Amino acid sequence: MSFQVRRTTIDQWRDATQRRTVRLAVGTHRQALNFIRRVGFCYLYRADDPEIPSLWHAVHGVRPGLEGVVATDRARTSLLWELKSTLAAGREAYVGKLILQKPTVVSPEFVAYFFATSGRTGDRDDFIRAHQRGLLSVGARRVMELFRRRSYLTTGRIAELLGRGGHAARFSVEQALTELQSRMYIAKCAEAHSLHASGWAPVHVLFPREVRRSRTIAPEHARSVILERHFQVQYVSTLADIRHTFRWSRQEIYQALGDLHRRGIVASDLSVEGIAGHSYIYLGERTTVE
After folding, report:
1. Domains of the chain (ranges, CATH numbers)
2. Mean pLDDT per 10-residue run, the chain (290 residues)?
3. For the chain, counts of helices (H) and of strands (E)
4. pTM, whole model, 2 decimals?
């Protein structure tokens, strides 16, 4: 079976699943939680990369690239600032620089799947083994050593305990924090207007049940689940986009795509208007956000 898809069809699908219209825009805290649960994972802020949904765009009800048409709306801006603070503080979602090292929001259900792809056990000292294998920098290890005795630290306190001051030193701390977020060692648990006052905690402290559950999930299955939700939200994607977004190896991607293809969830015989390369299409029904 051969599929031909117009770009307008893809945009309409994503408008519905990602709440990118004024009529579907997220307007309450509860709607935001439903949105995060339905998409599974999204950027917190504006998404220059259209391959991932964005809470910012869902709150404003607008597609990427059309931000300029959004009128200043204090209520929407206030809601986004509220969500930025409460999602992390209430442990209602994982908040950290995960996908492409950008601020990402992940539903608790998908925390386990993403953690399962990390190749880690989640125990207190697995950062030591990662450093010994060359998978973690010295700076990141030093930060994690601080969390062996503490379950919560602010950015400023981390810099203080490491004995670092000055702009260059603060930048190196931020680099370590970004590295640790991208590997799911730590996540944000307190938001602050001052970057130095942001609060952090180990993921195994914030989401202990999800980390325990991840140990029962094979990485191959986790990637398949993540990719299925990705297609459900995006409708169409390419091998290049998947690799760019999730940073999985080509073999890992083909393995996940093969599983989805065998189960009749995606098809590959596809021609997409305006998209070059090998594209895949989601065969299930569109699921809109409540």
Report:
1. 3-112+216-282 (no CATH), 122-214 (1.10.10.10)
2. 79 94 94 97 85 92 72 79 91 95 96 95 90 94 94 92 63 91 95 76 96 97 98 93 95 97 89 75 71
3. 14, 11
4. 0.92
